[in-house]
């Protein structure tokens, strides 16, 4: 029996959150947290009851230890995580000028995760899992990271892992041309692909959810789920397709992490062999729950919370005392 | 002449307020405040210009001193307050996962207030007042607390105090059956009863404000005022009844304490012999003012502020410089 | 060539901002900032690319140094700023009971700026500028300040500086009668006057924007621009007049400083010889940008930000990563 | 029977404590507390088990309410406290450049307490007490304050109150000549006088503790106690005199408030008719306890703590768990 | 092969650390941490490179999750940890009146860990380890906890685990008589016992380190190590004995956790078969390192840090930039 | 006449200061400040009354603006400062494990300042100054920085500027061999060199202050001043030499910045043509003053403070009220 359900890898950085909604030059205090799409997904999936492994290459420094402690503390398997003395753990700063204008400032160029290389991959570790989860961030970090992604795909194919690909395009990290070519190639190996509408347009060059999904299906993907923000999502396979409406969110507190929670919900549905429609509905629910809570991963729900939310989302929970 | 207008008693705890809207496991810092329905009412009533006595049994510890200092600092008479070495002052933690989901975690089982017993009551002290204010929280704390409530009712009846009863049901503290039986019995001694709509349903088993109020009146209560949240309140006596519309609140910041402010407004109206309609309108105004300010008791208004609010509530106060 | 575009002077105080939305007696921590209408305008104008001089009389104390460092740090010329040992730098405290109720508590009576006197003016310094900016706050601080304002007007007139007058009425500082008389007189010397609607009513005794503006024009002002809050502004000269609609603001975070930003926009337009309509539109844009950011001067935009805002204000900027 | 042991009056201000040991221009956050020599003494004495009344004239503003709430919360009788709309409650800022260099910046000129005048005194209230406590700060605030001090002395003399005078010289508040003349005159009415060594030198013009004390005794004071800092104190009456050694303090955290605690200890000893030597020893003990705790009044001990400290001061209390 | 080196269990609580050195009633803000002797030891030992399992019974609440996340994050195996709905995770508050006076206030009576009972023990899990670590805290929590300790001893004896017993006497939790009897009995089963000098006196009734150690040896313990604070430690077996001097600590920041770090050092030495003298020296080093860092477990060193400290302790590490 | 006294350049970074003395992985909050040896010296010198220019290449980002605002706010001329879009403003984090163990973590590799290149130098700007101040940090940042240092030396030589060189060796930034060769070469151009004892040993290969100084003098330097920490400094020229004792520091709060303050004192003495002994004494005084205050540049004194400190350093300044 497989000892892990899912394995994922990628850069998790230390995030410095400003304590005031001001241009960053006027912010005096910052709060340390972690930020990383793959670890968000891993933590989200672990909370839904699955066994998840995550790894990266961290700096042998206090910030690297902090990233490890946080993710391991959440119950994710971190036994394959690597450390290096050659580069520091990356950091980034969030700026919130107003509730509508969020910006990020990265110190991740030549960071520890960019040193990941194909030889770092532990084939035995990866082959324990049923699913390999990949994002489009990792190949943008460095050439060796790009090679590592393809090496991981290779291992996955050899050992029968499904590949779930969440494009997560970060234009700040690489050029448009290279991004498009690489993401297309990774997409071509994915069993399941989870683009946002703009991401789908960018990769495949079509416009509507239906067109984008059909194009991916024609290129060989089994399942395509296109995220449509507050409107929900559109899914398509060779056999079925449809829209699943999003859950109403009273007040969006922090949109970051919603896509990672969505991915966790989708993978959970796949692992539980739920219907695609139900799977997408769960992804939508988690996305909606995450945006109502501050923090990237703090608001990721446990399974009983997801179920409770899906049943009674329109009712307001009062102070219970 | 009576030297106090109102006497009340019950548990006031130290409240630890999280400094971030996050699941509690992710909150790093907490702010110390106090929380207690009876002391909120007492402070609210004192600010309206009345002489109020409050007491409890506090732990002989820094937190007990803090509760005493805070309530005494507000001008409430605390000379009958008791201290014990046998149990600590209770504490509780608030969790604000999002603006819609507030939860509390109590450490009040076997706390100092639960040791209150009939012998602790100072008959001479209570008999100085015109009104005894009771909540449904105290009888839920322990059997000796329950007995103390009935002993206080007895003293009130002997010395001609009116009894105002605010059910304040806390389901976390006791079983449904016992709660119902005890609250019904306390209600039967009250001159004035101030249930919320759900509380009225729970105690008396009816559905509409009119039915609930009529049922209480038939059981012998003089005055019934049913709180309807943002919609205002419904009042009924043997001679009159009616709805009083609520004041519009632009932005609910913190709903806790609104019911206690409402009770303070009602008791103030009774003490000033104002018409019941005007009395309920004042209760509504205070409730509306409290929800617009953070904190349980910080937002309780002074009389001139209530009057100013009632006259011009729809106008926005600009920055005055 | 003139080495400064604009010179302005007036009291900048240290502002203590509460760290919680509570009545001030319940606030534990305060954050130090600066507050001053003239320095806000100066900083705003400097960010738009102009050379601005600001001066005041500050106390020879740490708070005076802080005010100087902050304004100088922003690139405003402070070389004419004076210091005194005879009075402390003024301070004030903001109270935010709720988002609708902001109040201020001044400790500025007999503060250092109130000691400004005509002899303090450096004629050579002022005469370097093209425009003298005045507010109605300075003459309210003391008799010597009032005389200083008229002495500055005199210098401006002698050296051919335009005078831009922003009434900024502070009723807490002086009596109604005196205020009206003085502001009328200052207004009579202004080339450009920027009253709010209520300010216009108070000074000139008319009701509609058109009536107010006409009255000023008849009294000899060249340009009148009447601020209408979220509705925009009305402008009038001898030759043209019109309304310019305001920009939509999603969420007003902090209204303070909007008028000062508006003034900076207007003066920038004048210095660049832009059309009056375009000038007012820029003033509106800056006002709208400022209210969306916390702080009085922190949210004042740089020119490229203003242009970007004016072009795409209705679109929401996403998290850019 | 007298219903109060001691009455005192004087200015209590809101103190803003910096959150960092830095020149004040570089401190971002400040914590609100109260500061006032007379209220420190009153709180200290109340904790030792006596009934104490304190009053001042406070501003009708949030800071005035805060001062009142804090002192009343400590159990001091504040029923004679006055409020005014004519001036604000004074504030001051502490600067801690280093642990050796503390400075204060007052905003107390023309503050509410400076408006105290003889007519404000409630003769009936003062006459309830056995002892009137005075400091040399109040007469320095304004002429009407100076007159109020002498009016209070007059009431005390008429009603048989002892006068305890603690010079507390604040050179920042008045001229040397006037200070000397006034303090000499107040001293001449005092039964007990508690100068520091430098204060004694300043008022009476002698050098050693013995000389200073003898001079005061010759001028008619009953009891003179000269504070010698860490070395303890020297006392003298017509009948006895001597040195009482100070208690060893491991680490001075905050020296402010030590003199006020000393005064509370002395007055407590007088009220309990303890020997002068024991009285001074208690004063020394409280002074030593106060300097080991942050805050002006927070560290003032309760009687059982004083006794425990006097018995076992050299032993270190371990963590008790 | 054994898959764990050491297993330990006991209550870990959420600790609220005051943000100011003040009597607790005057502290406004508290910082959340964890506190628990057994988990401190477990974390310390894990950092030294060993495989450690820790378990407790935690409340199914956010604080229980926080305790689990923190300990698991440190790499300790928590797979045997239990959760309950029947009682909350215990909390406690630290008071630091001064650097010499620390006090704690527990809310742990009837907390979740007190519900631990013999049936909760997982024999298979415990039997994986080479050493069982016990403290004298657990048997003081409740009768079922006491029984659980003896049941664990029984399992250890059956499966050949060594028992290391660290008395950690908490007099606040139980009566003197019962404490003495129980601790004596647990001690009788221990292979290694690590009392402080006072603890040794209390349990065995002797005075000097030599006498205490001899008495334990005669009662059958293999190894006795008596902690002597800054003076180091005394060890004795049937074959050898001696004093090992302590390391000099420049500035004791926080003494809590030193004993747990000492225990971790001792157990590490045992697991590595180092000489007893070297083992005790390592325990001393870790104890000295822990008291120089704030926090109970944050300062526990990694092995390379211990070695570096033991080699160069007298030299001062400069700022390395 | 020269319009600047001194010009300096080099990297100033944003420094994130932990809010707790803990290993960095356990610190939650960080405070933003600036850190840079050259800007510290520039600010220090400006406070002593001189006209100083500083420049660097900053990122066109909020952190770059913050660095500029802070240094400009202090009155240093920043008109030659450059901005780039090609690299971010560098940041670094301080770790304070204990008061004895401070560590820094840089994110300055490929930062904006490392892009400084000879063409960036403004010959006209530099030639306005009498003295060029250089540190050994800048040549370690990149090859183009190294070339820039030599280009600046060239300009200085052409325009008759004196060169003051403060080695400030940062071993984390470059290899030992290269460091030694480069620093030797820069030293060879310096009129005045200010090494610490270890720096002198490293550069010139001698042991005692006298030997090191003589070696530099023989290589052609005019003045050598060797910093000896708390012991003061040794100076030597062709004509005189001697030791100047350091000032006693009661409590070292933060040693960072002391060397930069020392350099400011030396340069001030040179500019004022004071005797070398007096100059070194002033450097010692400033160094001693800086280490008693938190922060790198906050504690740099104004001239009148230096003089007051030099006159009365052994007396303790009391609370002045």
UniProtKB/TrEMBL annotation, chains A, B, C, D, E, F:
Example GO biological process: fructose metabolic process
Keywords: ATP-binding, Kinase, Nucleotide-binding, Transferase
Domain Carbohydrate kinase PfkB, residue spans: 5-301
Domain of life: Bacteria
Keyword Nucleotide-binding part of the UniProt annotation: yes
Gene3D superfamilies, alphabetized: 3.40.1190.20
Coiled coil: none
InterPro entries named among the record's database cross-references: Carboh/pur_kinase_PfkB_CS (IPR002173), PfkB_Carbo_kinase (IPR050306), PfkB_dom (IPR011611), Ribo/fructo_kinase (IPR002139), Ribokinase-like (IPR029056)
Any Pfam family hit: PfkB
GO terms assigned for molecular function: ATP binding; fructokinase activity
Entry's family note: Belongs to the carbohydrate kinase PfkB family.
Protein name from the UniProt record: Sugar kinase
Organism: Bacillus taeanensis
Source lineage: Bacteria, Bacillati, Bacillota, Bacilli, Bacillales
């Amino acid at each position: 029996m497989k000892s892990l359900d899912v394995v994922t890898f990628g850069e998790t950085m230390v995030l410095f959150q400003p304590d005031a909604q001001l241009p960053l030059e006027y912010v005096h205090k910052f709060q340390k947290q972690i930020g990383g799409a793959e670890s968000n997904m891993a933590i989200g999936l672990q909370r839904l009851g699955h066994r998840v492994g995550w790894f990266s290459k961290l700096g042998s420094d206090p910030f690297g230890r902090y990233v490890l402690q946080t993710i391991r503390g959440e119950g994710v398997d971190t036994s394959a995580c690597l450390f290096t003395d050659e580069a520091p753990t990356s950091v980034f700063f969030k700026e919130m000028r107003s509730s509508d204008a969020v910006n990020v400032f990265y110190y991740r160029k030549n960071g520890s995760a960019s040193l990941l290389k194909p030889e770092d991959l532990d084939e035995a570790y990866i082959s324990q899992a049923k699913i390999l989860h990949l994002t489009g961030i990792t190949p943008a970090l460095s050439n060796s990271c790009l090679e590592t992604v393809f090496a991981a795909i290779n291992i996955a194919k050899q050992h029968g892992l499904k590949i779930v690909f969440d494009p997560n395009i970060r234009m700040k990290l690489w050029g448009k041309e290279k991004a498009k070519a690489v993401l297309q190639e990774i997409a071509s190996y994915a069993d399941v692909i989870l683009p946002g509408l703009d991401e789908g347009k960018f990769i495949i060059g079509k416009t509507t959810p239906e067109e984008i999904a059909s194009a991916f299906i024609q290129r060989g993907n089994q399942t395509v789920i296109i995220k449509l923000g507050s409107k929900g999502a559109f899914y398509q396979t060779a056999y079925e397709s449809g829209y699943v409406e999003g859950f109403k969110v009273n007040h969006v507190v922090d949109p970051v992490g919603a896509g990672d929670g969505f991915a966790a919900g989708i993978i959970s549905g796949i692992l539980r062999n739920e219907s695609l429609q139900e799977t997408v509905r769960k992804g939508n629910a988690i996305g909606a729950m995450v945006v109502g809570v501050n923090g990237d991963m703090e608001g990721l729900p446990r399974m009983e919370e997801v179920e409770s939310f899906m049943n009674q989302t329109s009712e307001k929970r009062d102070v219970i005392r």
